[in-house]
Design goal:
single chain, 212 residues, alpha/beta, Rossmann fold, 5-stranded parallel beta sheet, 8 helices, 5 strands, 13% strand
Length: 212
């Protein structure tokens, strides 16, 4: 594909959304065409699934298996409706989460079968993978502090954020495991640093890819 596919991964409150927005702004200031996505979401179907998975009272009792399939459904729609067309048009796609999230959250942290998850991701994404993935690694103490400072609109609790600390510890270790398995693609960045320093690390990698 002529475009460039970049993803950001990490646990809760690691600063993904901030860094996605900063990178998009910097690339667009250079005249590049950029499409930003988030998971679940970024399509009409995906946003409805996002509400069910993260915010709706109806989603509180979802089983891990149902959760896995809903994330897969949202990603399948996103890949075909947004990501592939954008890449085929030569645009840069910046994704706030992609398939690594499923491997870590539903596979490693939830304990679902990783072999099945790999097969599901192959079905959903075919061979589509980001050229580079930025793993914003954050220790749990800093994560808790940031979550306490985070301001959310009323009645918008996040079901995943509110899972207990042992789950989030598994998420962090799961991401580091995935990064060790794919060191060429996944770049670990210390997300406890100031946002400007994280941005500089991201931009250094992107510049190298773009050949500047």
């Amino acid at each position: 594909m002529p475009g460039l596919f970049v993803s950001f991964e990490g646990g809760e409150a690691c600063g993904k959304s901030t860094q996605v927005a900063r990178l998009v702004g910097k690339l667009e200031s250079q005249g590049r065409e950029v499409v930003a996505t988030r998971e679940p979401g970024s399509t009409r179907a995906g946003e409805a699934i996002r509400n069910l998975l993260l915010h709706s009272e109806s989603g509180i009792t979802l089983t891990p298996e149902a959760e896995l399939l809903l994330f897969g459904a949202s990603r399948a729609q996103l890949v075909e409706e947004v990501i592939r067309p954008a890449l085929n048009a030569g645009k840069i796609v910046i994704a706030d989460r992609f398939s690594d999230s499923t491997t870590v959250y539903q596979g490693i942290a939830r304990g679902l079968d990783l072999k099945f998850i790999r097969q599901l991701e192959q079905f959903v994404c075919s061979d589509l993978l980001p050229v580079v993935t930025f793993l914003l690694d954050l220790d749990l103490e800093t994560m808790r502090t940031r979550r306490l400072r985070r301001v959310r609109p009323a009645n918008t609790k996040d079901r995943m954020e509110e899972l207990p600390s042992p789950f989030h510890e598994k998420v962090r270790e799961g991401y580091l495991q995935v990064a060790r398995e794919s060191p060429t693609r996944i770049k670990i960045i210390d997300a406890a640093r100031p946002a400007d320093e994280v941005e500089a690390s991201v931009w250094k990698e992107i510049n190298a890819i773009l050949g500047r």
